[in-house]
Design goal:
25% of the residues are buried. Helix content is 17%, strand content 28%. A hairpin with a 5-residue loop joins strand 2 (28-33) and strand 3 (39-46). The mean pLDDT is 81. It has helices at 75-89, 112-120, and strands spanning 3-9, 28-33, 39-46, 93-99, 106-111, 128-133. It has 2 helices and 6 strands, in the order E-E-E-H-E-E-H-E. Helix 1 runs antiparallel to helix 2 (112-120). It has 142 residues and is α+β, with helices and mostly antiparallel strands.
Length: 142
């Protein structure tokens, strides 16, 4: 089994993804391609030399818990990557961290900043799709 951490855009991001790579404070990104080898808008996040997000889990991680138990040093890196994707691509997206074969059970609307704050706090839900709004400020009454 495998932990997949993905960002899904409504359309391919292609060359725009190049602005989100090559920085030591960011995760590696790879956009899935269809059978015609065309980008799909589904972007995988992973550490250097890895093909999934399993390396980001602690040894104590338990997939029965509500939040992923990720290594503290990768939390700001994940948050930086999400923020860079949001500022570079400038389109709404969905963020998920799911165990292979699992499906989200909840949807949560957030801004990119709110998602980055949740990530830094170690509060990435295991079965949540985060619907990230771009260019909107959170409502101070919420």
């Amino acid at each position: 089994m495998c932990l997949t951490m993905t960002v899904r855009f409504s359309k391919p991001v292609g060359d725009r993804l190049a602005h989100v790579t090559g920085d030591a404070n960011l995760l590696n990104t790879s956009e899935r391609k269809n059978w015609l080898r065309k980008p799909t808008g589904l972007v995988f996040l992973f550490e250097e030399g890895e093909g999934c997000a399993c390396s980001m889990l602690t040894d104590e991680a338990d997939w029965g818990q509500p939040y992923w138990d990720l290594r503290p040093e990768v939390l700001p890196v994940i948050a930086n990557t999400v923020e860079r994707l949001a500022s570079s691509i400038k389109e709404p997206f969905q963020f998920e961290a799911l165990w292979a074969g699992d499906h989200p059970e909840q949807n949560m609307a957030v801004t990119a900043t709110e998602l980055a704050d949740l990530i830094k706090a170690g509060k990435i839900g295991q079965k949540i799709t985060y619907n990230v709004k771009i260019g909107e400020q959170p409502d101070p009454c919420d």
